[in-house]
Specification:
- By secondary structure, the protein is mostly beta strands.
- The protein has one domain.
- It is 13% helix and 40% strand.
- An eight-stranded antiparallel beta barrel has the order 1-3-5-6-8-9-10-11.
- β10 and β11 form a beta hairpin.
């Protein structure tokens, strides 16, 4: 190897980011409820009208999945603003991106894609420390995958109690159910034969939440890709 190529290799190594500290949480559970998202029913449990739509995901279906994040990801909500743009001291809020993940719902597999919500400081992982809701862990991600019948996958999420002294990311998985919600998991699907009026949401309970050795797809850093492309072009030019 010439000294020129050795120098380039050293520059690539020096410029590459430090190895990410990736953490993956896995989960399992059971679907306990299925309803039409936009059909309000005052006499129904939880005010939502049950449905027989989305036949591919019946009540009693099992779900499982995982999502991966980097402990070094920055807090996108350093000002601790709630969804309405207000700060509510002394509590704090932290919002973080995910690297990726996967949801399997009654055998159907969907990718979990990081979600940047409106307002933009809310991300896929949102941690409340001594906030209005107390200590809580809320998760939401975009679902990507093939439609289930006439229904297009939309989002998956949950909110659970999360005793913590910080709004930062942790290696401790969220456990327990929200004090006001015994079926914290949800997955929403759009469309159906009636358009938006036929949107369906399934909800369920967790049976396990744990540290996992699986990981979402980790993209190669863009800067490193550019360097590798430059090296390839240089080799071509020398021929």
């Amino acid at each position: 190897m010439t000294s020129r190529w050795l120098l380039i290799l050293l520059l690539v190594c020096a410029g590459a980011p430090a190895r990410a500290e990736l953490i993956t949480f896995g989960f399992e559970g059971e679907i306990t409820e299925k309803y039409e998202t936009w059909q309000f029913c005052p006499t129904c449990p939880f005010s939502s009208r049950p449905t027989t739509g989305l036949v591919g995901i019946p009540l009693g279906s099992v779900f499982s999945g995982f999502y991966t994040f980097d402990l070094d990801f920055p807090d996108s909500n350093p000002d601790d603003l709630d969804p309405f743009g207000f700060d509510n001291p002394p509590g704090t809020l932290g919002s973080y991106d995910i690297v990726g993940g996967q949801l399997t719902l009654n055998g159907a597999v969907f990718d979990l894609v990081n979600l940047v919500s409106d307002p933009v400081w809310w991300r896929s992982i949102n941690i409340a420390n001594d906030y209005i809701v107390g200590d809580a862990y809320a998760f939401v991600a975009q679902l990507a995958g093939a439609p289930s019948g006439n229904y297009t996958p939309d989002r998956m999420g949950f909110q659970v109690d999360y005793p913590t002294d910080s709004d930062g990311l942790s290696t401790v998985p969220p456990t327990g159910f929200s004090g006001s919600d015994t079926r914290p998991f949800y997955a929403s699907f759009l469309g159906g034969r009636d358009g938006p009026a036929g949107d369906v949401t399934v909800r369920g309970r967790f049976t396990a939440f744990f540290l996992s050795d699986r990981q979402g797809a980790v993209p190669l850093p863009g800067t490193l890709l550019l360097v590798l492309l430059g090296l390839a072009l240089a080799r071509v030019a020398r021929r």
